[in-house]
Every structure is written in structure tokens, then in C-alpha cells.
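Response regulator
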Amino acid sequence: MKPLRILLVDDQALFREGLATLLSVRPDLQVVGEAANGLEALAQTARLDPQVVLMDLRMPVLGGVEATKRLRASHPHVRVLALTTFDDDADVYGALRAGAVGYLLKDVSANRLVEAIHAAARGESVLEPSVATRVVAEFARLTEVAAPAPLVEPPVELLSERELQVLRLLASGASNKEIAAALRIAEGTVKNHVTNVLGKLGVRDRTQAALQARALGLL
């Protein structure tokens, strides 16, 4: 199996070098390039065709949010995973609206980061637990203020008890591996449950599942 192709985007050269060294010891990952700002990221993506881009958000020339938006428009198959120092609401919501599939802080553990990269490559949403909680809370606040209709009609099929357990853990930001450990089931079984949950809720990814579940009163 070929290693995942990774592009590192951060204006701090020392951080990029450290991250490249950390990831280079993994046979399942290959750092194919680096960029110091959003414009360089767009050029490097076009040249190197990475599968996952680890994107800082606050950079000179062109910031990560706008770079993510442009990258997703020009290379929709490339997954962007925000990796930044800050977790304020403007950064979080800006990155997710721009098309990032995940949002992690730079103090994340090496194992968690590697898991997140693989999850992002599969198209799964990966959120820092504190970020996931705030995203759901913000959606709840907007729902109370604007009283919008649910995103979709309530699912015809009811979620099973196990699927509800998976959904609650998913909404907290847990990865498939962490859900499997918490429920003491195989990771492959978790993946099947997640697929079923997304299908029953009529959504495409884990972030939308968490928001939809809140709108439908399932959490």
C-alpha cells in the first residue's frame, strides 16, 4: 500500500521541519512538500498533488482559511486538515466553512495526528473535542435564535442503541479507534456503524452528523 502524500503548510520553518521529521518515520505517510503561506500551498498542491494538506491558518501573504477555500475549489479531491495554535470561533468556523475536513491544535499528540491524517484521507471529519463541542453548541444557539427547520426530515429509520452510542461519541470528536476502545468493539464495526448513521441521518460527514443529530434532538 502506497503511503499517504502529505503537504505541510505553516509560516514557521522550525515547526515544519519538526513536523516533517516526526511524520517521516511513519512508513504509511510521505511528506512530499512544504509551503510557508497560502499562495505557496496552492502552487505546491498543483505541482505535487498531495492527498492531505496540513494547513496552518494565520499566515502572511494568504491565510489558511482563504487558501483552503481556493484549494478545495481547484482540487476538490484534496483533504485539508487545519493544524493551528488558535481555536477561537472565527478560525474554527472559517476553516470549516472553507472546506477543511478537520481542525486540530498544534499540541495534539503524534498518534492522534497520524490517526487524523488517515481519517481525513478517507473523507472523515476530525475535530478537536473542545471544537466539536463548540460547533454543536453554536448550532444549537443559532437554532434557538432563528428557529430554522431541521436540515432534513427526521430519518425514517430509527437509530439503534449502538448507533446512538457511536453518534454521541462521534459528536464529541472521538475517532473511530477511540470509539472502538470506549465501546469495546472492533474498529471495522465502528466504521460500519458510522456509515449507517450517516446514511440514516442523510448527511455526508461526521460534522454534519453531529449538527443534524442536535437539530433532531438525538443528543
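thats it. The longest strand covers residues 29-35. The longest helix spans residues 129-146. bye
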